[in-house]
Amino acid sequence: MGWKLRTAQYLYVQLGEESRDKWLSSGQRVAIKGKIVGMYLFERTVASREESLNDSAQKPDDQA
After folding, report:
1. Which of 22, 45, 46, 57 is 20 to 30 Å from 4 at the Cα level?
2. Using alpha carbons only, how large is the chain's radius of gyration in Å?
């Protein structure tokens, strides 16, 4: 019994921003605050240890 990673996604979540006028020039400066969030989707696998040992023993050897 174990887990298999199916997909992983990352996204940026904006938490706020702060703007102020530039000094000695026109326009504004904007600072954005946020964090990166990871989302992972796992699938539960139900393979016994004996089955995986048998599968690896049945694979042919590629070396001649």
Report:
1. 57
2. 26
pLDDT digits (tens, 9 = 90+) for 5-54: 999 999 999 999 999 888 788 888 889 999 999 999 999 988 666 666 66
Contact 45, 52 (CB under 8 A): no
Whole-prediction pTM value?
0.45
- Candidates 55, 57, 10, 58; CA nearest to 34 is 10
Comparing CA positions, the residue from 19, 17, 15 lying closest to residue 34 is 15
Which segments within the chain are labelled E, that is strand? 2-21, 28-45
